[in-house]
Write a structure and sequence with these properties.
Belongs to the succinate/malate CoA ligase beta subunit family. Keywords: ATP-binding, Ligase, Magnesium, Metal-binding, Nucleotide-binding, Tricarboxylic acid cycle. GO terms for molecular function: ATP binding; magnesium ion binding; malate-CoA ligase activity; succinate-CoA ligase (ADP-forming) activity; succinate-CoA ligase (GDP-forming) activity. Pathway: Carbohydrate metabolism; tricarboxylic acid cycle; succinate from succinyl-CoA (ligase route): step 1/1; One-carbon metabolism; formaldehyde assimilation via serine pathway. By secondary structure, this protein is α+β, with helices and mostly antiparallel strands. The chain is 36% helix and 26% strand. Helix 8 runs antiparallel to helix 10 (305-316), helix 10 (305-316) packs across helix 11 (335-348) and helix 11 (335-348) packs parallel to helix 12 (364-372). The longest helix has 19 residues, at 182-200. Bound molecules: guanosine-5'-diphosphate and manganese (II) ion (MN).
C-alpha cells in the first residue's frame, strides 16, 4: 500500500527523521494559509499523487501552467496561484502512464536551500531475506538511469535482522555519500531512524530522493516515498487510515473489499480461478492457445456465492473482456456452490460474452448438472486444455 508524500513525511518525523516543515492543502485558500503560517520567504508547492517524477512532469491542461508538479513560490500569492493551477488538473509523469493522475491534494512546504542532492532507499531484498540499503551521490535523478549508466555510483548492502542496525552501517553510507564532520553523525542517526521506522511499520520500500545537504550543511529528506507490506496492514490501523482509494485502480479496490486477489492485465479473456497457482497456470495456457488473459483473479479457497458474483462484476467492468474462463478446483469449496454462484452472477449481469466453465473436484457432477439445467449458454469443458482452447476459439469467432 502506498501513501502520499506528506503522510510519509509525517510518519518519518515521528521517528526523528529531518523533513521540511509543511502541511497538506486541499484548496488554494488552504495552500495560502499554510504558506503564511510557514512564514516564507520561499515555499514549495508539491502535487500529491501516488507517483514520482512530479518535478519533471507536465499537466494535460494548458491552464495548469508549464512548470510541473513541484513549484517554488516566492510569495504567498504565488502559492495560491500555483495551487489554483494544479488542483483538479491532470499531471502526467514518467510513472503515471499517459493517462496521468488528477491532483486533489498539495503539500505546502518551507523552501530548502540545496547544496547537494543524494539518493537513499531501503527495500526488502527477497534474495537475502534482509533489508537492503541503497545509497548514491546521484540524487534527484531517476535511480534506474544511474544504475544503468554509472552502476559504480551506487552502494548496496544489507542489514542482518538478527544483529540489526549498527552505527557502522550509517558510517558506510556517510563515506559513500562523501559526507563530512557533523553530517556523518547526522547520517548515522538518520539511517538508524529510517531502519527502525522501516521495520516497525512493516514497510516494503522507503525511498528518499533527494536526500539533501542544505547550504547550512544539514541533512534533510526532501522527498519521501513509502510502500507498506499489505500482508502486515492488519497490525497497522494507523497506516490503513492513510489509504487514498482514489489513487488506486477502482476494480482493485472493489476486489480488495471482497478479499479477492485481482490484477488487471491487457488481454481479452477474463479469468476466474481459485488458487494463485491455478490462476497462473490458467493464464499460461490461454497464452499457449494464442490469446491473452485480461486479468489475474484468485477468488481464494473459501469463495462464497457473493464473492463469485463480485468477481464476475469486476471482470466485466473491464471493457476489453471478450470472454470469460472459469477454472475452479473444488477442494474445500464444493463445485455445486461455485456453479450456483456462476449462474447467479451470469443472470444478474445478463452476461453477453461467451463463458467457458471448467469444474473439477468435490461434487463436480452435481455442479455440472446445475450448470446444464440453468438454461444459460455456458460452455462446459472437461479439462484445462479443453477449456482454454474453447474460450480462445469463442473469442476469435466473435471478433
Ligand atoms: P519528484 O519529482 O516527484 O521526485 O519530486 P521531488 O520532491 O523529488 O522534487 C523534485 C525536485 O524539486 C527535487 O529533486 C529538487 O531539485 C526540487 N525541489 C523540491 N523541493 C525543493 C526546495 O525546497 N527547494 C529547492 N530549491 N528545490 C526543491
Ligand atoms: Mn523525488
Amino acid at each position: 500500500m502506498n501513501v502520499h508524500e506528506y503522510q510519509a513525511k509525517a510518519i518519518l518525523k515521528e521517528y526523528g527523521v529531518p523533513v521540511p516543515k509543511g502541511h497538506a492543502a486541499f484548496t488554494p485558500e488552504e495552500a495560502f494559509a499554510v504558506a503564511k503560517e510557514l512564514g516564507g520567504p520561499i515555499a514549495v508547492v508539491k502535487a500529491q499523487i501516488h507517483a514520482g517524477g512530479r518535478g519533471k512532469g507536465s499537466f494535460k491542461e494548458p491552464e495548469a501552467g508549464e512548470k510541473g508538479g513541484v513549484r517554488i513560490a516566492k510569495s504567498f500569492d504565488d502559492v495560491r496561484t500555483f495551487a489554483d493551477e494544479m488542483l483538479g488538473r491532470t499531471l502526467v509523469t514518467v510513472q503515471t502512464g499517459p493517462e496521468g493522475r488528477v491532483v486533489k491534494r498539495l503539500l505546502i512546504e518551507e523552501g530548502a536551500a540545496i547544496k547537494r542532492e543524494l539518493y537513499l532507499s531501503f527495500l526488502v531484498d527477497r534474495a537475502t531475506s534482509r533489508v537492503a540499503v541503497i545509497a548514491s551521490t546521484e540524487g534527484g535523478m531517476d535511480i534506474e538511469e544511474v544504475a544503468h549508466d554509472a552502476p559504480e555510483k551506487i552502494l548496496t548492502f544489507s542489514i542482518d535482522p538478527a544483529s540489526g542496525y549498527s552505527q557502522f552501517h550509517g558510517r558506510k553510507v556517510a563515506f559513500e555519500l562523501g559526507l563530512e564532520g557533523d553530517q556523518v553523525k547526522q547520517c548515522v542517526k538518520l539511517i538508524g531512524s529510517l531502519y527502525k521506522a522501516f521495520v516497525e511499520k512493516d514497510m516494503s520500500q522507503l525511498e528518499i530522493n533527494p536526500l539533501i545537504v542544505t547550504e547550512k550543511g544539514d541533512l534533510v529528506c526532501l522527498d519521501a516515498k513509502l510502500n507498506f507490506d499489505s500482508n502486515a496492514l492488519y497490525r497497522h490501523p494507523e497506516i490503513v487510515a492513510l489509504r487514498d482509494l482514489e489513487e488506486e485502480d477502482p476494480a482493485e479496490v472493489l476486489a480488495s473489499r471482497y478479499d479477492l486477489s485481482y490484477v488487471k492485465l491487457d488481454g481479452s479473456i477474463g479469468c476466474l480461478v481459485n488458487g494463485a497457482g491455478l490462476a497462473m497456470a490458467t493464464m499460461d495456457i490461454i497464452k499457449l492457445y494464442g490469446s491473452e488473459p485480461a486479468n489475474f483473479l484468485d477468488v481464494g479457497g473459501g469463495a462464497t456465492k457473493e464473492k463469485v458474483t463480485e468477481a464476475f462484476k469486476i471482470i466485466l467492468s473491464d471493457p476489453n473482456v471478450k470472454g470469460i474462463l472459469v477454472n475452479i478446483f473444488g477442494g474445500i469449496m464444493r463445485c455445486d456452490i461455485i456453479a450456483e454462484g456462476i449462474i447467479a452472477a451470469a443472470r444478474e449481469m445478463s452476461l453477453k460474452v461467451p463463458l467457458v466453465v471448467r469444474l473439477e473436484g468435490t461434487n463436480v457432477e452435481l455442479g455440472k448438472e446445475i450448470i446444464r439445467n440453468s438454461g444459460l449458454a455456458v460452455i462446459p469443458a472437461d479439462n484445462l486444455a479443453d477449456a482454454a482452447e474453447k474460450i480462445v476459439a469463442e473469442v476469435k469467432k466473435a471478433a
